[in-house]
Amino acid sequence: MDATPRWLNPEEKAAWDSFIRMQETLVGRLSRYIQAESGLSASDFVVLVSLTERGGGRMRFLELAKLLEWEKSRASHQVTRMTKRGLVAKEDCPEDGRGAFVVATPAGYEAIEEAAPPHVEQVRRLFVDALTPHQLSTLGNLSQRVLTHMEKLPD
């Protein structure tokens, strides 16, 4: 039998609700802005950022899905859509016949290079400018603490 849930107290619930509302509002506004400015969806943007900033332009498909915290099917559909639009290409992995690389194409690089400056301005306007340097540092430390905690727990 399941244990009794550890319900959130009013302070915990208020903190959680505020965090979720902030995160959803921020992501929603950024997503709508980047779509309007560049034609890239939020998913296009995060895939291209992941490939170009972290992956040197290419990344194993499963590594990309794991990095984005996406199910394999979601990542596959997204990569397929982006491939059809010429933003990424899929390449076979010579060391592993079942594996594949996702590679940013020249068009993908061009798209992210055009989308990144207005995106970062919106991040600054909506997020960074709302906080003092100390608050920003504290938020960064708290976020990393939660991420580290989650890494220790089973999925």
From TrEMBL:
Record Pfam families: MarR (PF01047)
Gene Ontology terms describing biological process: response to stress
GO MF annotations in UniProt: DNA-binding transcription factor activity
Record-linked PROSITE patterns: HTH_MARR_2
InterPro entries linked: HTH_MarR-typ, MarR/SlyA-like, WH-like_DNA-bd_sf, WH_DNA-bd_sf
Xref: SUPFAM superfamilies: Winged helix' DNA-binding domain
Limits of the HTH marR-type domain: 1-148
Protein name: MarR family transcriptional regulator
Organism, scientific name: Streptomyces corynorhini
